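1st attempt posting a full record on here, be nice pls
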Amino acid sequence: MHYSADVIIVGSGIGGLTAAALLQERGFTTLTIEKNMYPGGSCASFRRKGYTFDVGASVFYGFSDNDDHGTLNLHSRIFRRLGLSVATIADPVQIHYHLPNGLDVPVYYRQQAFLTELKRHFPHESGGIDRFYRELESVYEILSALPAGSLEDIVHIAKVGGTHFGKTIALALKTLKSMGRTARKYIRDPELLRFIDIESYSWAVQDAVSTPLVNAGICLADRHHGGINYPLGGSGAIPAALCEGIEKFGGKILYNSEVQEIIVRNGKAEGVRLSGGEELLSKAVISNATIWDTCNRLLKDPRYRIAEERFLRAPSWFQMYLGVDAGVVPEGFHVHHVMVDDWQRYDQPGGTIYFSAPSILDPSLAPEGRHVIHAFVTDESSRWSHLDRGDVSYRKAKEDFAGSLLRRTEKILPGLSDAVELSVLATPLTHERYLNRFRGSYGPLLHPGQNVLLKPQNRTAVKNLYAAGDSTFPGQGVIAVTYSGVSCASYIARSLGNPLEYL
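the predicted structure (as tokens):
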């Protein structure tokens, strides 16, 4: 059998690119196939009229240069392994929350400054605040001591368990806990518990009770150690560097090519079939698609189908990419904001506004005298599916909804509507079309109360077919899918006879 590569990767999201880069550096041959003309998936950048916009998030963990600070520092360690670097700039405030009843809380890099600010609003909960955030620190302390690897790799588990037995047992016990239930052990004030909910929802799109404590420990503690660091040039700098690493070691990336089917014969994945009919064969296949797209679209055998309701389906997004006059952004304005008008609607479509102005950190993203603003809310494809994408009614619906969001954001940035010089709008249908994601979803979520280890791992029901990305453990977010890529590469490398060295 003639192989196009040892491993074929379907999609150039960060999880897939991470796996490809590490496998290629280790001596395996890889072929990454991407339907678009640029890499990165939800972590890409695009340009319009001199502005550079981040497709998705612009809050990034894992870039600390000091390995004593930051949960695993995966980005820094990976690029170090590849002999590359991504220049970043530190953000002193992770998120500035603007919440009902005048609750206004910036989350500073310095943890004590953040906790002091939170206690100023809730002095009667001072002890509970300390104890809850200390719980998150304890998760961070365990995770930062353990090397990244596959939880399905018995050799890795044995090594970690033998070297860090106490921490491994402690971590296993913490997987049984949720962030919200842990908070309720120490905190009683309902307004403060709502703040804990939005701390979770801001990155997990679930309330705190539904969010595993382990996941919370990664994000809500690491921000005070490794910190939040923005890649110069925009989020697309991350996939660009991973692609550079892949190609540096001889790997290939095929753009403008769409995988229509994962070829399975006798229960084994043997390669992929492209939209033009070409078959490319490999020893292993990694799907960076969602679990629904992998099992219900790319795998044609109905035996591998999964029901949509097996997992909670995270919402999609409505996004506004704006180029604005810089005069509307005051001196000292923070980069990242989360706004909630009504606690009864914060977890409903459009209920929470995410707002970023990354050109405050990196002026190269916008023409002189201008700023880039990215504002977005959760949304559902069902709200738009009755409209024809090319019809004037679709365009008007987008503009009307964007206008309502602009008016809401003027609570923190007065005059924003009049300062807009460029507007690019995207609905869940845009996400579904460009990213090939089922209903444009942010990915699968666990049902409340489920153990975080019930999140799909890298192996699938098909031999030699693996998964990476937000459908796999540990879940959504750039640093999480990076971990999934490391884990996936680790398992495949061992199964093919040349294990990765720990990062």
